[in-house]
Amino acid sequence: MINKLIINTLKPLNIPVCFQRYSGKGETYITFHEYFSGGEDYEDDEERLTSHYVQIDVWSKNDYTGLVNEIKNLLNTVGFKRLNEADLYEEDTKIYHKGIKFYYLEER
């Protein structure tokens, strides 16, 4: 459910969005993964709310500032809350990398 929500939400960006790995040739792309998920609220021993902690990774040979803002806006409109983010540079591949962590609460 969470993977499909992320992919569909970021589709308007018209760049590749992939779960964990990208094997294409594009110079700008997005990968993502869920690093924690857990029950948040229970009713009659049934999980009513599930928390999802995900990281969105932006990879680019160019300035990704505008793209990052678009990602944050799109995910915010469907209920994701940004937790933190970090700018990185991958020396071995010479690519800029932005990691953005989000929280999403899913009702069951």
Question: What brief labels describe this structure?
Answer:
alpha+beta; five-stranded mixed sheet; 2 helices; 108 residues; single chain
Q: Explain this structure to me?
A:
The chain is of the alpha+beta class and 108 residues long. It contains 2 helices and 5 strands. The protein has a 5-stranded mixed sheet. Strand 4 (81-90) and strand 5 (95-107) form a beta hairpin. The longest helix is centred in the middle third of the chain and has 13 residues, at 65-77. The termini are close together.
Write the layout of secondary structure elements.
Layout: H1 2-10, E1 17-19, E2 28-43, E3 46-60, H2 65-77, E4 81-90, E5 95-107
Parallel strand pairs: 1-2
Antiparallel strand pairs: 2-3, 3-5, 4-5
Count of DSSP H/I helices = 2
Order of helices and strands: HEEEHEE
pLDDT < 50 stretches: none
Q: What portion of residues is helical? A: 10-25%
Could you tell me the radius of gyration in angstroms?
Answer: 15 Å
What kind of sheet is the major sheet?
5 strands, mixed
Strand order of the largest sheet: 1-2-3-5-4
* Strand runs, count: 5
Tell me the distance between the termini. 11 Å
Shape: elongated
Helix/strand structural class: alpha+beta
Give the overall pLDDT as a whole number.
96
> Beta fraction of the residues?
over 45%
Short structural description:
With 108 residues, the chain is α+β, with helices and mostly antiparallel strands.
